[in-house]
Amino acid sequence: MTTTIAEFFEGDLAPLVRRMADRPRGEGGDTDDDRRETRAMVWEGLVGLGALDGSDAVGLAELLGSVLYQGPLLDTLTARELFPDLGPAPVALAEGSCSDQDDTVTARCDFVGFAAEVEHFAVVGGARSALVRAGHPSITTRRHEETGRGELYRVDFDGTPVTAWAGPLDWAGAQVRQAAYLVGLAQAALDHAVDHAKTRRQFGRAIGANQALSFRLAEMSMRVDAARLLVHDPGTAAHAAATLAETADLARTVTTRTMQIHGAAGMRSDDDAQLYYRRAAAESVRLPQPRG
Fold first, then answer.
1. Domain boundary among 105, 133, 166
2. Does one domain contain both 133 and 229?
3. Which of 1, 198, 209, 247 could join 179 in a cystine, given CB atoms 3.0 to 4.6 angstroms apart?
């Protein structure tokens, strides 16, 4: 499955995917409409290629991290563990303190991805999980102007009708997939750093020929490979929270060093170094890590 999806991301699509949720502070209008259309096209393509089948969700998550995919696919996979009868519609996880009365839910959820573009919310974090339809007048959303410059929202549910109830969410599967996503992100940032080290020249030679830099790149490569083995280990679910914490540190470390290797050029908006750095900052704290 992931091989076919990997081919889907080849060519000119990968650069578009990396920036299809990149929205600088205060930006909107036609530019954001274009990115929203790209996200919708990518969603349809992924679903059509069987991304929701879940046969290799960890491999898929790593691939998505390598192209900095920003969308509700991983949330939807998690929601389908709670609500197996869900169709192919996108779902956003909304974690927060939740109180329920009869068949409604009231909750404040501070960091919800792509709340403006999903058809359902899975409200999780308590003794029960609730599935609610997006667009109900009892739901209010506000987009965060955050470091990652992505699509994170605060969502408030005020007596929102519940479509279906389920038990509490076991975070292990979501944590392992997020860990794999961070491994893919770290690998892509490392590749970007290596490419720069090969082409950037100082004093008549590539900077990658300097022993200190080459050792640093080799160390990062070793850590990424070790983390990859960890997330693909069948027993990883038993220590999913620790795995997520390790890969979160890895992603932050690799992207920080990638920025350092690029120097001032890495901070330009047209350079992907700053993009990897900002996405690592957001994605490394996206899911609750102490649980597991």
1. 166
2. no
3. 247
Provide the β-strand partners of residue 104. 101, 161
Residue 226: inside a domain: yes
Q: Partners of 123 in the beta sheet?
A: 94, 130
145 sits in which H/E element: none
Q: What is the CATH number of the domain that holds 113?
A: 2.40.110.10
The candidate with the shortest Cα–Cα distance to 247, out of 283, 275, 274, is: 283
Q: What percent of the chain has pLDDT over 90?
A: 66
- Residue 89's contacts (CB-CB under 8 Å, 6 or more residues apart) are 76, 118, 119, 120
Rounded to an integer, what distance in angstroms lies between the CA atom of residue 195 and that of residue 13?
20
pLDDT tens readout for residues 227-237: 999 999 999 99
Give whole-number Cα distances, 65 to 123, 192, 278, in Å. Answer: 24, 14, 13
Lowest mean pLDDT among 31-40, 127-136, 164-173: 31-40
Q: Residue 41 pLDDT > 50, yes or no?
A: yes
* φ and ψ at residue 49, rounded to 5 degrees: -90, 5
Query: For residue 124, what is the DSSP state?
Result: E
In the chain, which ranges are continuous DSSP H helix?
2-8, 13-18, 30-48, 57-66, 73-82, 172-199, 211-231, 240-262, 272-283
HSE of 248, CA atoms in CB hemisphere, 13 A: 19
- Please give the tally of structural domains in the chain: 3
Q: Do 179 and 253 have their domain in common?
A: yes
Residues 185 and 279 in one domain: yes
Full-model pTM: 0.92
260/179 same-domain check: yes
pLDDT mean over 45-70: 93
User: Is residue 189, in this structure, part of any structural domain at all?
Assistant: yes
Q: What range does the domain containing 42 cover?
A: 2-70
